[in-house]
Design goal:
Low-confidence stretches: none
Number of helices: 13
Radius of gyration: 25 Å
Length: 589
Amino acid sequence: MHSFSEQCLEMARTMLAHNLTSIQPEGTILPVEGELSRPDEPGHAALALGEYYRATSATTLKGYDLVDLTARCITAQMFTEPAAENGLAYASLGLLCFGPSKERNLVWERLVDETRARIDKQLLHRSDYDNHWQAFNVAKAVARFSFGLSKKDETSRLIERMVERINDTSSTGFFDDAAPGIGGNFSLYGVMTYVFIRSSLQLHANSGVRDRKLPTLRTYAEKYIKMMPDLVRGDGLGWAFGRYSGAYGQMHCISLILQGLRDGWIAEDQKPKYFDILRRLFLFFYQTYLDQEHGFLDMRDNERTANPHHTTRIANFDAARFLCQWSRLAKTVQMPAAPIKPEPVRTNPTGRFVIFDKSNRKEQGLFLYRDPSSGIHAQIPLVSSGKVPSADTLPFPHCPGVFDWPCNVYAPIMLPELTFGDDTVTIPAYYGKNCVTGLGLRNSFYFRYEQPELITKDEELTKNLGSVKVQWNFAGPSISCEFAYTVKQQVTLTKFRYMLAIAAPHSRYRVAGSLALGEQAHRCTVQKDDFQASWQETEVVSDDSRYCTNYGKIHYLQHLVRDHPLIMRPGNVYRLIVNFEPDVARIEE
């Protein structure tokens, strides 16, 4: 594992060297061409430099004074108006990395009195959040107490308050990143929250607080750790749904597993399995997002994209920070004496529904299906999108390379979109009732749920309009879906729409053996269509920059459309049944 540690550190060193020139004399960050800087970027840079110092004890890199650069970034972040609270959290942890107190901190010595007073003022500002921003509050509390800016340590209280809200919003203890909409925004930020808080506790001046809160964190973080064997694809693709996946879907999962191994949250007999998962996650991250010739993180180009919040600068500084953390964590993890052997390849398909929340109001979760023979490994999230409609969170089989979708764009991929009147656009997403999964005939799996009230794409329930029952069936590489609609009173359907996206893997950043579509594509057949829609001319979007994924370019969109009115009557069931037998190929290098 020490070779892995050295590899991470070398990558972090190269990545930082490429991005140090972006730190301006006043501490702000110069964006890459075509992007706009974010107000929290100096904080991200400060923490990356701090973690590099923790990993190496070096105060210079490529002729740059890292202590001076960190002081500049922290100063810029503290004087940012209005205050970017997430940036303050990153900057305060970056400061802590250089010493556990003001008296023994290299960066604090470089700060002028005005900046020190500003840090005191900014960190003493109290706020409260019921989403992932509470992790930033925890980080601020850690820094506030460790630097002696407050005699009262609020770290424990903030963590307990976060836990109370987790229990209020999830019946099974998963992290709901509270946002507008129906509720239940279970996203990658849940993993990020635990990773960030655990990193913050490691820097706390009072190790007793860390020891007391670790069992609490373990209770909830373990739930995500136990998901990893079913979540991570054979080629190493990790968290693949939601607006914040992509490179971060790899980095947060790697960090969580390494922290779990370090803290003893993974049983001894399970460690070989998790080391194999770790290896695959890292290999996918390395080959998919690292420019191996120049040594920087490359998330967006003319073939792929990323969430707008993840600027190239932030992603590079974050990646360098993670690599430094992985390097340190890897040194503390005890590897088995014998070489790691991957688990025996499963021959039978598997299906599992992870329940995020189950209440009288709604049920939400994640269905995971894997077919070893074809390599199909799909994630179907039934979760809220936080009232930001996009294909990233819709409940269809997310399987990059086979079933793709445009990132940061709303499109009814593999789901029927029904429009009533002028502006009531409904889609069977975001929530369910009576969610059931089980075995069917011949080792097949099904996942079904109901929606007693139709919901709009903007997550607003439509009272007394209609209902829908959804069932996904999986048998080896074959997938079928059935949608059964009923209305409660006579109503006019003004438009029906259903979409498929066909993408290609990135021409340069890809992993050998990853999935791709063959020449026969999805082999889609419509078995039953009571909406009497028709396939439109294939839309070519190769030159449209909006239609990219986190992994490659979308070239074609196929639309099944009915664009003239349909009178829907109560008592009738309107079904759409679509079958897929995708032509799955493997990428060869």
